[in-house]
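> forwarded from #structure-qc
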């Protein structure tokens, strides 16, 4: 994948000196509205593509292309908070409202009512906290989607999960070198 750097945006700080979720969402919205940057992303008909960006205040940011029918699978962001905004097309986010224990489990049975789903089309986005578990999908059978994502602190790891009905199973823990 190409690794293209964009100029740094003005620094916005949160309570710990880094950007807060609101600042990350503002960055995602501004970046998603940059037609030249969005057009620079090569789109692949079968697999996701991405360009790493310089996020605000030392955050990690990505411009991601989503072919029709692709998604992330269930995952978290290793304790980082973040935000994303759709620049083109429509993405569906499925998320859990329950906070999962950080360690000491392999399989959890989820209670009824913890599932949420939202559709995010051109220009819409959302911020989330450090315990957020979700999957992001392009459910369109024909149209690519493009989105901007930002995380602070930069992702220390990602946990990947499988889901069968109410059962959520921890499948893997990925380190940054596996996705950069």
């Amino acid at each position: 994948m190409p690794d293209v750097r964009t100029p740094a945006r003005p620094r916005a700080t949160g309570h710990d000196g880094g950007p807060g979720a609101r600042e990350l969402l503002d960055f995602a919205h501004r970046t998603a509205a940059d037609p030249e940057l969005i057009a620079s992303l090569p789109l692949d008909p079968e697999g996701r593509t991405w360009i790493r960006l310089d996020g605000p205040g030392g955050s990690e940011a990505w411009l991601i292309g989503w072919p029709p029918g692709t998604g992330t699978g269930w995952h978290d962001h290793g304790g980082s908070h973040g935000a994303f905004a759709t620049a083109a097309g429509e993405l569906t986010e499925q998320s859990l409202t329950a906070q999962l224990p950080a360690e000491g489990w392999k399989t959890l049975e989820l209670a009824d009512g913890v599932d949420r789903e939202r559709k995010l089309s051109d220009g819409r986005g959302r911020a989330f906290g450090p315990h957020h578990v979700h999957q992001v999908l392009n459910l369109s059978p024909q149209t690519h989607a493009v989105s901007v994502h930002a995380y602070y602190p930069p992702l220390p790891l990602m946990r990947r999960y499988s889901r069968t009905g109410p059962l959520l199973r921890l499948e893997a823990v990925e380190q940054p070198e596996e996705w950069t």
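QC bot note: The first helix runs from residue 21 to 32. Confidence is low (pLDDT under 50) at residues 1-14.
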